[in-house]
């Protein structure tokens, strides 16, 4: 499970790892449900399963959600069916989760879970990354994202590993090394 504050680079790193030749076929990216509107370039079933708030509530009520969180007014969740299907195929999963989601999954799968926190080089760099998102991040969300980032950084020591994302290639190499090491354990 990969976590980190908004703007830390966790999604970029995860997407690069999925395409890595050494990891291809060995790991699968978990696709989350969300009620958030689709951003430019995002695709249904690849980036997220975009659902209406009503569909989300029905899935939650039916017990089809493994973990969930609410962030900036939108719901995000890990669908049980997707996780079960991948585990039945003996696939290792890469999940991009917040702290609450990572804790919950670790509780369900304590022996088969590894947590990795992506650290920004500094709070100032993180602020710049969030601002650069431009149209992707509404101005009113900026302070909420920053406040949440500070909370997440304060508890990053709970994770099994922490990876500094000062340089994307270096962070990707470190993350890949961790994943390959952990694949050997399981």
Write the layout of secondary structure elements.
Layout: E1 2-3, H1 10-19, E2 27-29, E3 32-34, E4 48-50, H2 53-61, E5 65-71, E6 74-79, H3 80-88, E7 92-94, H4 99-108, E8 116-119, H5 123-132, H6 139-154, E9 161-164, H7 168-185
Parallel strand pairs: 1-8, 2-7, 3-4, 8-9
Antiparallel strand pairs: 3-6, 5-6
Helix pairs in contact: 5-6
Describe the structure.
By secondary structure, this protein is an alpha/beta fold. It has one domain: Rossmann fold. It contains seven helices and nine strands. Strands 4-3-6-5 form a four-stranded mixed β-sheet. A three-stranded parallel β-sheet has the order 1-8-9, covered by helices on one side. The protein has a two-stranded parallel sheet with strand order 2-7. α5 runs antiparallel to α6 (139-154). The longest helix is centred in the last third of the chain and has 18 residues, at 168-185. The radius of gyration is 16 Å and the shape is globular.
The share of residues in extended strands comes to: 15-25%
Per the CATH scheme, the topology name is Rossmann fold
Low-confidence stretches: none
**H/E element order:** EHEEEHEEHEHEHHEH
Number of helical elements: 7
Strand line-up in the sheet with most strands: 4-3-6-5
Average pLDDT, rounded to a whole number, is 90
The count of β-strands is 9
How much is the radius of gyration in Å? 16 Å
Provide the structure class: alpha/beta
What is the count of structural domains? 1
Q: What's the main sheet like?
A: 4 strands, mixed
CATH class categorisation: Alpha Beta
Between the first and last Cα atoms, what is the distance in angstroms?
15 Å
The second-level CATH architecture is: 3-Layer(aba) Sandwich
The shape, in one word, is globular
The helix fraction, in percent, is 40-55%
